[in-house]
Amino acid sequence: MKPTGPSQRQLRVAEEIRHVLAAVFARGGFRDPALAAARITVTEVRMSPDLRHATVFFVRLGRADGADLLPALAHAQPFLRAQVAHAMRLKFAPSLHFEVDTSLDYAAEINTLLHSPDVVRDLG
Question: DSSP string spanning 1-23?
């Protein structure tokens, strides 16, 4: 039977990359004004099976316009990749692909639905 989820190595490398990127974003010091002013939280990293590609999910704290940062993050990707390569011992530094994490918005939407008067009436 073939495993369906990510391997332990993928999970371990992804979590380490998340920590490295979180530290870089907390430190700041970006030349790009869009990134210098943004407060970014890395919520999750998913690795490809060969560990050469990492999908980085992020949210912009206090604002819902995280998609506006995607061009700036793509431009800063070589710098961020170098930071990951410097901090970790991997054969290859993975390329970083950024995506806005919408799971918090989805959770808020479900919470609103669960507390709507129709649902409360049906459950009560």
Answer: ----S--HHHHHHHHHHHHHHHH
**Under 8 Å between Cβ of 19 and 83:** no
pLDDT in tens, 13-23: 999 999 999 99
Query: Does pLDDT of 3 surpass 70?
Result: no
- Sheet bearing 95-100, strands edge to edge: 40-47, 53-60, 95-100
The whole-number average pLDDT for the span 87-96 is: 91
pLDDT on residue 87: 93
Domains of the chain in start order, with CATH, are 8-123 (3.30.300.20)
pLDDT at res. 109: 83
CA–CA distance from 120 to each of 5, 8, 58, 110, 113 (Å)? 36, 41, 33, 13, 9
Using CB atoms within 10 Å of the CB of residue 77, give its burial: 0 to 12 exposed, 13 to 18 middle, 19+ buried. Answer: middle
- As a whole number, mean pLDDT of residues 65-77 equals 90
Any bridge partners for residue 42, and if so which? 58
